[in-house]
Amino acid sequence: MADVIEDKIKNYRTAPFDARFPNTNQTRNCFQNYLDFHRCNKALSSKGQETSPCDWYQRVYKSLCPMSWVEKWDGQIEDGSFPGKI
């Protein structure tokens, strides 16, 4: 299974269709993948496991989200004022 995940990450081009977000506006998709990346990292790190499966979420949010948003959210996480539940 790890080989399949690695192949998908290796062949990644842009964010695939996600049925949870069928509309043209992908803002919620961007935010959800940002949250999923940080939740995945937190969960796997706390168990002492490899966090490489989380790279998928990072690649998706980096292809969907404007970098100014990501920088703002990263700053909010550091300040403890991020509105999402990680």
From TrEMBL:
- Membrane-crossing residue ranges in chain numbering: none
Please give the positions of the paired cysteines in each disulfide bond: 30-65, 40-54
Keyword Cell wall biogenesis/degradation in annotation? no
Recorded hits in InterPro entries, A to Z, give: COX6B-like, CX6/COA6-like_sf, Cyt_c_oxidase_su6B
Keywords in UniProt for this one?
Disulfide bond, Mitochondrion
Q: Which CDD domains match?
A: Cyt_c_Oxidase_VIb
- Supply the Pfam families for this chain: COX6B
User: Gene Ontology terms, cellular component aspect?
Assistant: mitochondrion; respiratory chain complex IV
Task: Write out the annotated subcellular location.
Answer: Mitochondrion
Q: Does the keyword Mitochondrion apply?
A: yes
The record's family statement is: Belongs to the cytochrome c oxidase subunit 6B.
- Main role? Component of the cytochrome c oxidase, the last enzyme in the mitochondrial electron transport chain which drives oxidative phosphorylation.
Q: What is this protein called?
A: Cytochrome c oxidase subunit
Q: Which organism is it from?
A: Anabarilius grahami
